[in-house]
Amino acid sequence: MSAEIINGKQIAEDIKNELKDKVEHLVSAKGQPTLAVVLVGEDQASKVYVRNKKLACEYVGIRSLSYELPEATTQEEVLALVHELNERDDVHGILVQLPLPAHIDDDLVIMTIDPRKDVDGFHPINVGNLSIGHDGFVSCTPAGIIELMKRSQIEMSGKNCVIIGRSNIVGKPIAMLMLREHATVTVTHSRTKNLSQVCKQADILIVAIGRAKFVTKEFVKEGAVVIDVGINRDENGKLCGDVDFEDCVEVAGAITPVPKGVGPMTIAMLMSNCVKAYEKK
Ligand code: GUN
Known about the structure:
10 helices
């Protein structure tokens, strides 16, 4: 049996089209939704991410304001910019691309963003709201994973979900979201004993550890859903996930590819959070 390949690219396109329609209907009454994007320094990967986010904004009808600041920008200057954006009525969302240069405290910058404009869902208020089941902004990759499964008619309630990775951006929030969907959740990490055996119990296996092709078919139960959050380069420089796709596709029931799986969903959910911030205003 070969797994169903979940088309994240197509589902992300559907979401962006729905948001585009919504924005078109609201814009004459409410003005244009606006996302401020702050990038500090010369990190090449960050530049690519930011460019893709701005292109998605343009597609959906969200105005993006770009603040591309030199590496030498001080922490005080970044904080002053965030304060200014917090105050502006015509800015609905604020995104500060991470990582920031080493001389700037990421946590302090995130905590300075008004939680109502925190479309990344990184502010402790939004993280707290997620963990107690209150409304707020949910970080985009985990929100995208849930949406991907819902739109693929994957049942989550009562299922055994194993997560590999405990990061603040993916592992911890996806655990909270899977609990909200009534799954039974196990979070594993680099010190988990018998990792492959634990993973083999999963009906839904979510992998976010940042190691190319780490998960092989020995980790996957027959028919399981495998969600791959990784973006790595293999030994030939080709883009690949944390899951060995060719190996696992024969065993899994459904699997996300890399690229065109979870990645496009992250940006679609950022757009969704921007529209939510705008609607609430
Ligand atoms: N760096 C890597 N992923 C992200 C993200 O989702 N948001 C921000 N702001 N920075 C990132």
